[in-house]
Amino acid sequence: MKFYDCSSAPSPRRVRIFLAEKGVTLPSVQVDLRGGAQLTAEFGKLNPWCTVPVLELDDGTAISEAIAICRYIEEAYPDPPLMGRNGKEKAVIAMWEHRCEMDGFFAVAEAFRNTAKGLKGRAMTGLAAVEQIPALAERGRLRVQNFFKAMDVRLAESEFVAGPAYSVADITLLVTVDFAAGAKLEVPEGLTHLRRWHAHVSLRPSARN
After folding, report:
1. Which string of DSSP letters, residue by residue, matches 54-107?
2. Peptide linkage before 80 cis (omega within 30 of 0)
3. DSSP state of 100
4. Which tens digit of pLDDT belongs to each residue from 115-144?
5. Cα dihedral sign for 47, 114, 7, 188?
6. 8 Å CB contact between 10 and 64
7. Can the peptide bond before residue 53 be classed as cis, meaning omega within 30 degrees of 0?
8. What burial class does residue 77 get, using C-beta atoms within 10 Å of its C-beta: 0-12 exposed, 13-18 middle, 19+ buried?
9. Distance between CA atoms of 141 and 3, rounded to whole angstroms?
């Protein structure tokens, strides 16, 4: 297998943390996103959506999207389980991971991609040129703050996002919080439960990836 990565991008970091938690190391290829390597015809044959991460299997099958890659890794390396051990756990973890991705990660991306100077004309991933929309950036910032409040409520009642054990939902939230900080969207000091959780999971060796 070969892992197509970009060390500065948040999406592949989710997979790197997942792999580290599993104790799995894969050969990797750094994709120069700033240089537009993801937009080349060669990379397009691997992933027509022009994004990283991508996992290329030994038979040539290419899997894009962080959670799809994590799903494959979970099946190939089931221990420790990060996506649940039974039907109930799998469903609950998938539910919380989806909310972290949709309400958090994508909201940060909406705010970031519609304001970053280096992304003018590139407000969305893919080949099409899409102009930045300031109103979407503002909406993204509001969504992020609402998401942080919701996660603070959740983490007041649960040690980890999806229950008593660390899971892929925690990975998505960790990367989201760090991605947001890089976009100058810090977790407010009053959200003590989210801040406590973030300090705790950031001490895990996998978080250095």
Report:
1. EEE-TTS-EEESHHHHHHHHHHHS-SS-SS-SSHHHHHHHHHHHHHIIIIIIHH
2. yes
3. I
4. 999 999 999 999 999 999 999 999 999 999
5. negative
6. no
7. yes
8. middle
9. 31
Q: Which residue has the tokens 């603070």?
A: 152
The structure tokens 């406590």 sit at: 196
Residues making up the chain, counted from first to last: 209
pTM above 0.85, yes or no: yes
For the record, the structure tokens of 165 come out as 């054990």
Would you call 167 helix, strand, or coil by DSSP?
A: coil
Tens-digit pLDDT profile for residues 12-28: 999 999 999 999 999 99
% residues pLDDT > 90 (the chain): 100
CA separation for the pair 83, 26 (Å, rounded): 20
d(CA 65, CA 12) in angstroms, rounded, equals 9
Q: Answer whether 67's CB lies under 8 Å from 105's CB.
A: no
